[in-house]
Specification:
74 residues; mainly alpha; two-stranded antiparallel sheet
Length: 74
């Protein structure tokens, strides 16, 4: 019984000593919400770029739109 109590105490001491290092290790990874948001923004930007590229390949005159006297895209 005494061996179990000593072993339990040793385990708790080792766990509490490594807690700060474990927290520092976990903080280096981004949060899942931020990761999903960044992937969604990258997907939307890539889709928009692919659409502009496709429109340019079809007819480059499609991209010549004017807004307040200036070209909107180019």
């Amino acid at each position: 019984m005494l061996l179990l109590a000593v072993s339990s105490h040793t385990a708790l001491c080792r766990l509490s000593a490594s807690h700060k290092a474990a927290e520092k290790y976990n903080q280096q990874f981004p949060s899942p919400v931020l990761s999903h948001t960044a992937k969604f923004v990258a997907f939307i930007a890539g889709s928009f770029a692919a659409l502009l590229l496709f429109m340019t390949m079809v007819d480059d005159m499609l991209l010549e739109r004017h807004l307040w006297g200036r070209n909107l895209v180019w």
